[in-house]
Amino acid sequence: MIFKQMTIIGVGLIGGSLGLIAKQKKLVGKVVGYGRRRGPLQKASSLGAIDCYFLTLSKAIREADLVVLATPVGLFEQICQLIGPFLKEGAVVTDVGSVKGGLVECLESALPSHAFFVGGHPIAGREKSGVMAATASLFQGNRFILTPTSKTNQSALKKVATLWKKTGARVSEMDPFDHDQVLGVVSHLPHLAAYALMETLTHPKVAKRDPVQYSAGGLRDYTRIAGSSADMWRDIFIQNREAMIEVIDLYQETIEKIKKKIIRGDGPGLTEIFERAKEIRRKATR
Amino acid sequence: MIFKQMTIIGVGLIGGSLGLIAKQKKLVGKVVGYGRRRGPLQKASSLGAIDCYFLTLSKAIREADLVVLATPVGLFEQICQLIGPFLKEGAVVTDVGSVKGGLVECLESALPSHAFFVGGHPIAGREKSGVMAATASLFQGNRFILTPTSKTNQSALKKVATLWKKTGARVSEMDPFDHDQVLGVVSHLPHLAAYALMETLTHPKVAKRDPVQYSAGGLRDYTRIAGSSADMWRDIFIQNREAMIEVIDLYQETIEKIKKKIIRGDGPGLTEIFERAKEIRRKATR
Question: Which domains are present in chain A?
Answer without folding.
Answer: 3-174 (3.40.50.720), 178-285 (1.10.3660.10)
